[in-house]
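Reading a protein record of the kind used here takes little practice once its layout is understood. An example of such a record is reproduced below.
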Amino acid sequence: MIRSYLFTPAHRPELIARAHERGADAILLDLEDSVPRDRKQAARDGLAEAVSVLTARAVPVVIRVNADLGECVRDLETAILPGVDAIMLPKVIGADHLRLVADYLSMLERQAKLPEGQIKLIALIETAQGLMNAASIAKATPRLTALAFGTEDFSTDCGHVPSIEALKGPAQSLIHAAKAGGLQAIGLPGSIAEIHDMDSFRACVDLGRAIGFDAVLCIHPRQVEIVNAVFTPSASEIEQATRVVEAFDRATQQGLGAVMLDGKMIDPPIVARAHSMLQSRRL
């Protein structure tokens, strides 16, 4: 179960060497925003070594490429490596955008003699247009495993501050699109940039989990511990989920389709959520 993705600049080998110590479930090697334009090629040149370092530590690796077409093509050509789990594509605006990249990945995998479809895609939704098209994006290609919410760029595109008040509604829309497409939803209903007020950050993460996000993009190691804690079911949640499943199993054996537990009616949708929680604990 991946709860936390930690952005790590791909041109910083000293950070990559220690990335596995930060507690994140996956490392997101960044070729985009955190890499200065004059260091893009250096980041690409070191990508194979960076992936090798992380895979030797059994850490899942995702690579965020650039949105600019020329840069994106060069990034993709470099990122087709054994050990890369997924490519994060920024500023996805429509299904055709994603299908074009997916087709190019297939060609690159064949050239690299990698199994076709091995490297998955994560679509980063960062514009109003992307959000409006999220439902079709979610069904664009079998490579796609998740929709991610880029709140800072989205807020800039929409002309508002990245506050919970402004972002909760759009976040819920993205989550609904992801779930309808059978995908994970990654992100927060607020700013990703908060690295000092950890109480505020935790409140945002709590809300994110409550409204249906599955994981969070972290830009600083201090965010990782909070994200992992919030997205790990507590002992009391596991106990309650177990009680729900056991109570419903007993009811089923008696020919009943629902049962009362602690003053609440337990029916199949509630049982399904309990099973999902128990399954996530085992992943």
